[in-house]
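Hey L., structure's done. Input below.
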Amino acid sequence: MASRPQELAARREALVARCADQRALLAQDYSQLASPATLGAIPAYAIRHKKAALIVGGVAAGLFITRPKWAVGTVTAAVSAYKFAQKLLPVLRWKGFEIH
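Output:
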């Protein structure tokens, strides 16, 4: 008959093994979700380079706060260009901008 500390140690080992399996599955699922095939080229790049994306976002927010007219025009033009690219590039068989 196993004593209480041995029983707890066995349960702890089983729990640690189960947690390791769950971490491995989660890492695999995350890598699939963050892949360029799932997200598209630009969001996948932003996920891989979080620091650069945050810097660009901070600079954009600063420009929007300090010069709203100029920033709004720039954002509008960028969104229009992005929408145009979403429509044009799949026709040219380049699927990097598609959103699924």
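The radius of gyration is 23 Å. The mean pLDDT is 82.

-- N.
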